[in-house]
Design a protein that fits this description.
alpha/beta, Rossmann fold, 2 domains, six-stranded parallel beta sheet, three-stranded antiparallel beta sheet, 12 helices, 34% helix, disordered N terminus, NAD, DHS-like_NAD/FAD-binding_dom
Protein backbone atom coordinates (compact mmCIF):
# COMPACT_ATOMS: atom_id res chain seq x y z
CA UNK A 1 0.00 0.00 0.00
CA UNK A 2 1.40 3.38 -0.95
CA UNK A 3 0.86 6.19 1.49
CA UNK A 4 1.29 9.80 0.47
CA UNK A 5 0.73 12.04 3.45
CA UNK A 6 2.02 15.57 3.20
CA UNK A 7 2.49 17.95 6.11
CA UNK A 8 3.58 21.56 5.89
CA UNK A 9 4.47 23.68 8.90
CA UNK A 10 4.93 27.39 8.63
CA UNK A 11 4.66 30.57 10.67
CA UNK A 12 1.98 33.06 9.72
CA UNK A 13 1.30 36.25 11.70
CA UNK A 14 2.86 34.76 14.81
CA UNK A 15 0.86 31.55 14.70
CA UNK A 16 2.02 28.08 13.73
CA UNK A 17 -0.12 26.12 11.33
CA UNK A 18 0.01 22.49 10.30
CA UNK A 19 -1.53 21.69 6.94
CA UNK A 20 -2.39 18.08 6.23
CA UNK A 21 -3.24 16.60 2.89
CA UNK A 22 -6.92 15.81 2.41
CA UNK A 23 -6.12 12.11 2.19
CA UNK A 24 -4.57 12.13 5.64
CA UNK A 25 -7.20 14.33 7.24
CA UNK A 26 -10.16 12.31 6.03
CA UNK A 27 -8.90 8.87 5.10
CA UNK A 28 -6.49 7.86 7.83
CA UNK A 29 -8.97 6.10 10.11
CA UNK A 30 -8.83 2.89 8.09
CA UNK A 31 -5.48 3.53 6.42
CA UNK A 32 -3.44 1.72 9.07
CA UNK A 33 -5.84 -1.13 9.91
CA UNK A 34 -4.90 -4.44 8.27
CA UNK A 35 -7.66 -6.38 6.49
CA UNK A 36 -9.66 -8.79 8.59
CA UNK A 37 -12.49 -11.27 7.99
CA UNK A 38 -16.08 -10.35 8.84
CA UNK A 39 -17.02 -10.70 12.50
CA UNK A 40 -17.99 -14.29 13.26
CA UNK A 41 -21.14 -14.35 15.46
CA UNK A 42 -19.96 -17.56 17.10
CA UNK A 43 -16.67 -15.93 18.04
CA UNK A 44 -18.58 -12.99 19.49
CA UNK A 45 -20.52 -15.43 21.66
CA UNK A 46 -17.28 -17.05 22.81
CA UNK A 47 -15.77 -13.70 23.78
CA UNK A 48 -19.01 -12.72 25.49
CA UNK A 49 -18.85 -15.90 27.56
CA UNK A 50 -15.17 -15.27 28.38
CA UNK A 51 -15.93 -11.75 29.62
CA UNK A 52 -19.10 -12.76 31.46
CA UNK A 53 -17.24 -15.43 33.44
CA UNK A 54 -14.51 -13.00 34.42
CA UNK A 55 -14.82 -11.22 37.74
CA UNK A 56 -11.38 -9.55 37.79
CA UNK A 57 -10.55 -9.08 34.12
CA UNK A 58 -7.17 -7.63 33.22
CA UNK A 59 -6.89 -6.19 29.70
CA UNK A 60 -3.61 -5.49 27.93
CA UNK A 61 -3.73 -3.33 24.81
CA UNK A 62 -1.25 -2.65 22.04
CA UNK A 63 -0.96 -0.51 18.93
CA UNK A 64 -3.78 -2.39 17.20
CA UNK A 65 -6.32 -0.73 19.48
CA UNK A 66 -5.31 2.72 18.18
CA UNK A 67 -4.97 2.10 14.44
CA UNK A 68 -8.68 2.80 14.04
CA UNK A 69 -8.00 6.26 15.49
CA UNK A 70 -5.57 6.93 12.63
CA UNK A 71 -2.32 6.08 14.45
CA UNK A 72 -0.12 3.61 12.53
CA UNK A 73 1.59 0.68 14.22
CA UNK A 74 4.96 -0.92 13.51
CA UNK A 75 4.31 -4.55 12.64
CA UNK A 76 0.93 -4.98 10.92
CA UNK A 77 1.23 -6.75 7.59
CA UNK A 78 1.21 -4.35 4.60
CA UNK A 79 0.13 -1.29 6.63
CA UNK A 80 2.57 -1.13 9.56
CA UNK A 81 5.59 1.19 9.52
CA UNK A 82 8.01 -1.71 8.95
CA UNK A 83 6.01 -2.83 5.91
CA UNK A 84 5.62 0.64 4.40
CA UNK A 85 9.11 2.09 4.89
CA UNK A 86 12.67 1.21 5.81
CA UNK A 87 12.47 3.59 8.77
CA UNK A 88 13.08 2.23 12.25
CA UNK A 89 12.20 3.80 15.61
CA UNK A 90 14.79 5.79 17.53
CA UNK A 91 17.07 3.89 19.89
CA UNK A 92 17.36 4.93 23.53
CA UNK A 93 21.18 4.95 23.60
CA UNK A 94 21.41 7.15 20.48
CA UNK A 95 18.97 9.68 21.92
CA UNK A 96 20.71 9.91 25.30
CA UNK A 97 24.29 10.04 24.02
CA UNK A 98 24.07 12.20 20.88
CA UNK A 99 22.81 15.79 20.74
CA UNK A 100 22.32 15.71 16.90
CA UNK A 101 20.01 12.71 17.33
CA UNK A 102 17.96 14.64 19.89
CA UNK A 103 17.83 17.63 17.54
CA UNK A 104 16.57 15.46 14.67
CA UNK A 105 14.06 13.70 16.88
CA UNK A 106 12.58 16.88 18.35
CA UNK A 107 12.37 18.65 14.97
CA UNK A 108 10.38 15.76 13.55
CA UNK A 109 8.28 15.41 16.68
CA UNK A 110 7.56 19.15 16.68
CA UNK A 111 6.10 18.91 13.19
CA UNK A 112 4.09 15.79 13.98
CA UNK A 113 2.82 16.80 17.41
CA UNK A 114 -0.29 18.83 16.40
CA UNK A 115 -1.53 15.88 14.37
CA UNK A 116 -0.55 13.21 16.91
CA UNK A 117 -2.03 15.03 19.90
CA UNK A 118 -5.34 15.60 18.09
CA UNK A 119 -6.16 11.89 17.71
CA UNK A 120 -9.28 10.81 19.56
CA UNK A 121 -10.43 7.52 21.13
CA UNK A 122 -12.30 5.06 18.94
CA UNK A 123 -15.10 2.64 19.97
CA UNK A 124 -12.57 0.17 21.41
CA UNK A 125 -11.20 2.73 23.87
CA UNK A 126 -14.70 3.81 24.85
CA UNK A 127 -15.83 0.21 25.32
CA UNK A 128 -12.96 -0.58 27.71
CA UNK A 129 -13.62 2.62 29.64
CA UNK A 130 -17.25 1.62 30.07
CA UNK A 131 -16.20 -1.85 31.24
CA UNK A 132 -14.19 -0.17 33.98
CA UNK A 133 -17.08 2.07 35.00
CA UNK A 134 -19.38 -0.94 35.25
CA UNK A 135 -16.91 -2.86 37.42
CA UNK A 136 -15.99 -5.51 34.86
CA UNK A 137 -12.45 -4.37 34.01
CA UNK A 138 -10.14 -4.84 37.00
CA UNK A 139 -7.04 -3.28 35.44
CA UNK A 140 -5.91 -1.98 32.05
CA UNK A 141 -2.29 -2.20 30.91
CA UNK A 142 -1.44 -0.44 27.67
CA UNK A 143 1.74 -0.59 25.63
CA UNK A 144 0.62 2.55 23.78
CA UNK A 145 1.99 6.05 24.38
CA UNK A 146 -0.86 7.99 22.76
CA UNK A 147 -3.00 8.80 25.86
CA UNK A 148 -6.17 7.63 24.09
CA UNK A 149 -7.25 5.44 27.00
CA UNK A 150 -6.93 8.44 29.30
CA UNK A 151 -8.91 10.58 26.87
CA UNK A 152 -11.65 7.93 26.95
CA UNK A 153 -11.78 8.14 30.75
CA UNK A 154 -9.89 5.00 31.84
CA UNK A 155 -8.44 5.40 35.33
CA UNK A 156 -7.40 1.92 36.46
CA UNK A 157 -4.60 2.19 33.97
CA UNK A 158 -0.87 1.53 33.67
CA UNK A 159 0.94 3.06 30.70
CA UNK A 160 3.66 0.43 30.41
CA UNK A 161 5.82 2.42 27.99
CA UNK A 162 4.95 5.89 29.26
CA UNK A 163 3.12 8.64 27.41
CA UNK A 164 4.09 11.10 24.66
CA UNK A 165 2.01 13.79 26.35
CA UNK A 166 4.67 14.18 29.06
CA UNK A 167 8.30 15.33 28.81
CA UNK A 168 11.07 14.32 31.21
CA UNK A 169 14.42 15.98 31.97
CA UNK A 170 17.19 13.39 31.80
CA UNK A 171 19.25 15.30 34.38
CA UNK A 172 16.87 16.33 37.17
CA UNK A 173 13.74 14.29 36.40
CA UNK A 174 11.46 17.33 36.08
CA UNK A 175 8.25 16.39 34.26
CA UNK A 176 6.30 18.87 32.11
CA UNK A 177 3.33 18.63 29.74
CA UNK A 178 4.28 18.15 26.09
CA UNK A 179 2.08 21.09 25.09
CA UNK A 180 4.25 23.44 27.15
CA UNK A 181 7.33 22.27 25.26
CA UNK A 182 5.57 22.91 21.94
CA UNK A 183 5.21 26.56 22.92
CA UNK A 184 8.92 26.76 23.76
CA UNK A 185 9.78 25.21 20.39
CA UNK A 186 7.69 27.86 18.64
CA UNK A 187 9.37 30.68 20.55
CA UNK A 188 12.86 29.39 19.71
CA UNK A 189 12.10 28.72 16.03
CA UNK A 190 9.87 31.60 14.83
CA UNK A 191 10.95 31.38 11.18
CA UNK A 192 11.78 27.68 10.90
CA UNK A 193 9.69 25.77 8.42
CA UNK A 194 9.65 22.20 7.14
CA UNK A 195 7.65 19.96 4.89
CA UNK A 196 7.37 16.31 5.86
CA UNK A 197 5.89 13.15 4.41
CA UNK A 198 4.66 10.18 6.37
CA UNK A 199 3.54 9.49 9.91
CA UNK A 200 5.03 7.14 12.50
CA UNK A 201 3.36 5.45 15.49
CA UNK A 202 4.94 7.76 18.09
CA UNK A 203 4.02 11.07 16.44
CA UNK A 204 7.24 11.24 14.45
CA UNK A 205 7.35 12.41 10.83
CA UNK A 206 10.03 12.14 8.16
CA UNK A 207 12.31 15.13 7.50
CA UNK A 208 15.59 15.51 5.65
CA UNK A 209 18.85 16.17 7.47
CA UNK A 210 19.03 19.61 5.85
CA UNK A 211 15.66 20.54 7.31
CA UNK A 212 16.59 19.76 10.90
CA UNK A 213 20.07 21.34 11.06
CA UNK A 214 18.75 24.79 11.94
CA UNK A 215 16.11 23.61 14.42
CA UNK A 216 16.76 24.80 17.97
CA UNK A 217 15.95 22.54 20.93
CA UNK A 218 15.29 23.99 24.40
CA UNK A 219 16.82 22.55 27.55
CA UNK A 220 15.13 21.86 30.88
CA UNK A 221 13.78 25.14 32.28
CA UNK A 222 14.83 24.11 35.79
CA UNK A 223 18.37 22.71 35.39
CA UNK A 224 19.35 23.06 31.73
CA UNK A 225 19.47 19.31 31.14
CA UNK A 226 18.37 17.49 27.96
CA UNK A 227 14.69 16.72 27.47
CA UNK A 228 13.15 13.42 26.44
CA UNK A 229 9.56 12.24 25.97
CA UNK A 230 8.42 10.32 29.03
CA UNK A 231 8.35 7.07 27.06
CA UNK A 232 10.42 3.91 26.82
CA UNK A 233 12.39 4.07 23.58
CA UNK A 234 13.54 0.91 21.82
CA UNK A 235 16.59 -0.46 23.60
CA UNK A 236 15.47 0.93 26.96
CA UNK A 237 13.69 -1.03 29.69
CA UNK A 238 10.53 -0.54 31.70
CA UNK A 239 11.26 0.44 35.31
CA UNK A 240 11.38 -2.53 37.72
CA UNK A 241 8.79 -0.88 39.98
CA UNK A 242 6.29 -0.63 37.14
CA UNK A 243 6.97 -4.21 36.05
CA UNK A 244 6.42 -5.46 39.61
CA UNK A 245 3.22 -3.45 39.88
CA UNK A 246 1.78 -5.00 36.72
CA UNK A 247 2.86 -8.49 37.78
CA UNK A 248 0.84 -7.99 40.98
CA UNK A 249 -2.22 -6.87 39.03
CA UNK A 250 -1.95 -9.96 36.79
CA UNK A 251 -1.69 -12.24 39.82
CA UNK A 252 -4.78 -10.59 41.33
CA UNK A 253 -6.79 -11.04 38.11
CA UNK A 254 -8.85 -14.11 37.18
CA UNK A 255 -8.50 -13.76 33.40
CA UNK A 256 -6.51 -11.81 30.82
CA UNK A 257 -7.66 -10.32 27.53
CA UNK A 258 -5.10 -9.06 25.00
CA UNK A 259 -6.43 -6.41 22.61
CA UNK A 260 -4.52 -5.26 19.53
CA UNK A 261 -1.03 -6.57 20.27
CA UNK A 262 1.20 -9.09 18.52
CA UNK A 263 3.09 -9.47 21.84
CA UNK A 264 6.41 -9.49 19.99
CA UNK A 265 7.99 -7.13 22.52
CA UNK A 266 9.04 -8.90 25.70
CA UNK A 267 7.94 -6.02 27.95
CA UNK A 268 4.34 -7.06 27.29
CA UNK A 269 4.83 -10.75 26.56
CA UNK A 270 6.28 -11.38 30.05
CA UNK A 271 2.84 -10.77 31.59
CA UNK A 272 1.32 -13.45 29.39
CA UNK A 273 3.87 -15.85 30.83
CA UNK A 274 2.84 -14.80 34.34
CA UNK A 275 -0.81 -15.38 33.47
CA UNK A 276 0.06 -18.84 32.16
CA UNK A 277 1.94 -19.66 35.36
CA UNK A 278 -1.16 -18.65 37.35
CA UNK A 279 -3.28 -20.78 35.00
CA UNK A 280 -5.43 -17.80 34.05
CA UNK A 281 -7.60 -18.14 30.94
CA UNK A 282 -6.19 -15.96 28.13
CA UNK A 283 -8.12 -14.52 25.18
CA UNK A 284 -6.51 -12.59 22.33
CA UNK A 285 -8.20 -10.12 19.98
CA UNK A 286 -5.72 -9.13 17.26
CA UNK A 287 -5.67 -9.08 13.48
CA UNK A 288 -2.95 -11.53 12.53
CA UNK A 289 -0.88 -14.01 14.56
CA UNK A 290 0.67 -13.21 17.92
CA UNK A 291 3.51 -14.60 19.96
CA UNK A 292 1.03 -16.16 22.40
CA UNK A 293 -1.65 -17.71 20.20
CA UNK A 294 -0.68 -21.17 21.47
CA UNK A 295 -1.33 -20.05 25.05
CA UNK A 296 -4.80 -18.63 24.42
CA UNK A 297 -8.07 -20.42 24.92
CA UNK A 298 -9.68 -17.99 22.48
CA UNK A 299 -8.19 -16.10 19.49
CA UNK A 300 -10.17 -13.59 17.43
CA UNK A 301 -9.07 -11.84 14.21
CA UNK A 302 -11.28 -8.75 14.12
CA UNK A 303 -11.12 -5.00 14.42
CA UNK A 304 -10.99 -4.05 18.08
CA UNK A 305 -13.40 -1.15 17.61
CA UNK A 306 -15.83 -3.38 15.75
CA UNK A 307 -15.91 -6.29 18.18
CA UNK A 308 -15.51 -4.87 21.71
CA UNK A 309 -18.67 -2.69 21.59
CA UNK A 310 -20.67 -5.87 20.85
CA UNK A 311 -19.77 -7.33 24.25
CA UNK A 312 -22.07 -6.74 27.22
CA UNK A 313 -19.81 -6.38 30.30
CA UNK A 314 -22.66 -6.92 32.78
Amino acid sequence: MKMNVGLTLRAAKGCWRLNLSQQCAHGSIGLFVPPSPPVDPEKVKELQRFVSLSKRLLVMTGAGVSTESGIPDYRSEKVGLYARTDRRPIQHRDFVQRAPVRQRYWARNFVGWPRFSSHQPNPAHWALSSWERLGKLYWLVTQNVDALHTKAGSQRLTELHGCMHRVLCLACGEQTPRGVLQERFEALNPTWRAEAHGLAPDGDVFLTEEQVQSFRVPSCARCGGPLKPDVVFFGDTVSPDKVDFVHRRVKEADSLLVVGSSLQVYSGYRFILTAREKKLPIAILNIGPTRSDHLACLKLDSRCGELLPLIDPQ
